[in-house]
Amino acid sequence: MSERAEVDVVIVGAGFAGMFMLHRARGIGLSARVIEAAGGVGGTWYWNRYPGARCDVESMEYSYQFSEELQQEWEWTERYATQPEILEYANHVADRFDLRRDMQFDTRVRSATYDEQSDRWTIRTDGGGELSAQFLVMATGCLSSARVPDFPGLERFEGETYHTGKWPHDGVDFAGRRVGVIGTGSSAIQSIPIIASQARELTVFQRTASYSVPANNGPISEDEKQAIKRDYAAFRAQNSLMPTAIGSRLPIADSLATTVAPEERERIYEERWEHGGLPFLGAFLDLLFDPNANETAAEFVRAKIHGIVKDPEVAERLSPKTVIGCKRLCVDTGYFETYNRDNVELVDVSETPIDEITRHGLRVGDREFEFDSIVFATGFDAMTGALLKIDIRGRDGLSLRDAWAAGPHTYLGLGSVGFPNLFTISGPGSPSVLTNMIVSIEQHVNWITDCIEYLRDNGYRRIEATPEAQDAWVAHVNAVADFTLFPKCNSWYLGANVPGKPRVFMPLLGYPMYVDKCNEVAAKGYEGFALTGNPA
Ligand SMILES: Cc1cc2nc3c(=O)[nH]c(=O)nc-3n(C[C@H](O)[C@H](O)[C@H](O)COP(=O)(O)OP(=O)(O)OC[C@H]3O[C@@H](n4cnc5c(N)ncnc54)[C@H](O)[C@@H]3O)c2cc1C
Q1: What is residue 536's predicted lDDT score, i.e. its pLDDT?
Q2: What is the pLDDT, as a whole number, of residue 1?
Q3: At 270, which helix (H) or strand (E)?
């Protein structure tokens, strides 16, 4: 692209957020351009093609609700959809709403600079392209900046390396190979059972054990689909009343784990374990608030691990000692069972970390491991990583990296002081990764679109969060987190997986209350934001 394109809005990212943002922007008559680093739509589901990748929110919920026709016509096949099926869905949406003609793929945004005279953003891309827009919407994703720890010797390894978040499109055949998987988070837990079934030998390097609950995945029955589709809107409305916008069919119970009789508690955990998936954490109201309650759930899962894994020492190593749920709960299919295989070894690197990657594998203390392939299941620089990779300069040349040096500061997770006309979708300070993200994405996109429409209709050129509103919001987000057990372990919610990243709990718990607040702010003429221009 050589000439400078002028549009009303530039959207960075063509995942579910960027796609819907484009659709809504067009709907109110804005000219828009989406810039996407990938070769197609789908975001997370474009990049994460590792074996076993699938959603852990049920398919009937993990989809858009903005179009009744779309949700009626699309047929999910399994309770938890696979990555290929979700990517197919994303492509279907792009075709159905003719999104591609305003999308530019294989292009990465490098910088964005705000000009106060014109109230416009200049966006520069890696191909030397330049765009000018009144509004800039960052749909860059919370889990899109793949992270490989800085292991010494990484460049020396002569075999193949993969990151789960940047998986080759043609797939990988591990048959006959000696494979090392580094990490035991969500992506590892999904991929390890499949890699183990292919590889000659699999060695898993675990720093922190993860809690995982079986998915109990399977086909969705026609009856179940029809029951939901008969009144999809009511189903969505019920889900939106849940703190995580998920799972109204098995909501959070209102009893306390600490007051119920032990046998009854065990029965309830057993029932939720059988049901499978994330609702396990909703077995009791106090699980994420009271350490004693939490310990009962943690102990239940540890006992399950010991029941599944035959070697008691391996079972013990796989049993997390931390608070359950303060790291994202994993959902698996045969994860713990995998450690009963003869070709699988678990190596604990919590005390003795990986020293270096060698030409033929890696070294931990005095043990050398040889591999044909190493898989980094080492996660993401979550929530802020993709945003801060871009050199974003707001008013007076203020850089977002400096503004967020002590952790992200936003108002509602939607805007930040010093950065007028810049919106973040599912940004830090909003429920985001603690929810069904498509629900949160739609809520943000709708709010942003309504806001831009309001500015336009009322003759405002610029909107920016006020310092008072932002400070109060940051304090609120922290206070909510401190009321829970979330800050109690080293999770990516806190940035703890990235050395040097400020330790701040980034998402906000409580979807319905958050939505009420956003609606109230809008109803009061965008209270907490400064609006400037020539109002009609
Ligand atoms: C393996 C995995 C499983 C998940 N499962 C679930 C689940 O079950 N339920 C759930 O709610 N959420 C899940 N998530 C979270 C998931 O990220 C969201 O549900 C959702 O897909 C996010 O959509 P998005 O459009 O906001 O971001 P993304 O899908 O991450 O898309 C962002 C896009 O922005 C592009 N981009 C970033 N920076 C730039 C740049 N500088 N220039 C150009 N393009 C850029 C990226 O290439 C990417 O395509 C999962 C995430 C992962 C990684």
Answers
A1: 56
A2: 44
A3: helix 262-275
Best of 1, 20, 35, 44 for a ligand 1 pocket test (most atoms within 8 Å of beta carbon): 44
CA 437 vs CA 73, 137, 445, 489, 511: distances in Å: 21, 17, 12, 23, 11
Q: 86 phi and psi, to 5 degrees?
A: -70, -40
What does the pLDDT look like over 322-381, one tens digit per residue?
999 998 999 999 999 999 999 999 999 999 999 999 999 999 999 999 999 999 999 999
The H-or-E segment that residue 364 falls in is strand 361-364
The Cα–Cα gap between 505 and 48 comes to: 25
Q: Atom 41 of ligand 1 has which residue's CA nearest to it?
A: 109
Rounded to whole angstroms, the Cα distance separating 26 from 267 reads 52
| pLDDT at residue 3 in the model | 65
Q: 25 CA to middle of ligand 1, Å?
A: 20
Question: How remote is the CA of residue 433 from the centroid of ligand 1, in Å?
Answer: 10
Neighbours of 471 (CB within 10 A): 14
Neighbours of 230 (CB within 10 A): 9
Those residues of the chain that have pLDDT short of 50 are: 1
User: Nearest CA to 290 among 505, 488, 508?
Assistant: 488
CB of residue 436 inside a 6 A radius of ligand 1: yes
Q: Which of 316, 216, 232 is nearest to 273 (CA)?
A: 216
* Number of alpha helices (DSSP H) and beta strands (DSSP E) in the chain: 15, 20
- The model carries a pTM of 0.97
Q: Which residue's CA is the closest to the ligand 1 atom numbered 29?
A: 43
Which residues are paired to 528 by β-bridges?
none
What pLDDT, in 10s, does the model give residues 115-125? Answer: 999 999 999 99
Residue type, 510: G
Q: Measured in angstroms, how far is the CA atom of residue 351 from the centroid of ligand 1?
A: 32
Q: What is the Cα–Cα distance from 268 to 201, expressed in whole angstroms?
A: 38
